[in-house]
Amino acid sequence: MLRIVYANLGYSRAIDGSLGHHVKRVHHHVFTTRNVQLRSLHYVRDRLRELRPDLSCFVEIDRGSLTNGFFDQSRALVEDHHTTVRIDNKYSAERKFRRLSVSRGKSNAFLACRPLTYVARYLSVGKKRLVYDLEMAGIRVLVAHLSLRYRVRCVQLAELARWVEERDGPSVVIGDFNLFRGSGELQPLLASGRMAHANADAGPTFRLGPYRATLDTCLISRDLMDHCELHILDQPFSDHQMIQLDIKGFEMNEAPPLATPLLVSAQAEPA
């Protein structure tokens, strides 16, 4: 079995999306103490220990910024069994941020316990552009965090659909797609009939007071449909829920081991 866990960590600000948290903890958007971050991160770490995923993917994780005291949150999640660790700026590959920029450190990341191949790719438009393109056990996994702006998001979804069609074979596309206008926005990815919306009926993944929406999305290729089991898991320190995807009984081929077994990436950003 291959188990994938995905979560939007909300930068570990300990805001669960309730109006009470947004009002009482609004100052966490300006600055979040390390103790608050660690309580959230230790919950995630303990959940990972329980679930024992082969691949853990995160968006809205902080590599160290002005608003979190320059604390690299990924360090609180990495354990000895993680053979590959990657964390990258979620904006364009070329864009650099000064030390006091509020955007500095805002990242995506993944932790892997099995051999895989991967590349960090960047969409051509928008502020949030990073897409991880991974292959583990013969299954391709794309991890994305798309724009809040509808018109930009439409372009990103169309580009992501072209990337999916680059290769045949079993595929998973997962991430925070910010589908505020509903699942109809996924049409570019679903139009060919190759991909299916795995969590279409699994319930909302985002909360803002009484508002609920399925912003976090998991698509699977149809050759995986009879082999996948998906669960939405509560995440009390974020306004997003966690997604657990189990792929069972599928003939998998291990990717060749990487030349470097452990890689922690931190793109250089000038002070």
UniProtKB/TrEMBL annotation:
One of the record's GO molecular function terms: catalytic activity
TM annotation in the entry: none
Domain of life where this protein originates: Bacteria
Ranges where the Endonuclease/exonuclease/phosphatase domain occurs: 40-240
Signal sequence bounds: none
Pfam families hit by this protein: Exo_endo_phos
Full protein name: Endonuclease/exonuclease/phosphatase domain-containing protein
Organism whose genome encodes this protein: Aureimonas ureilytica
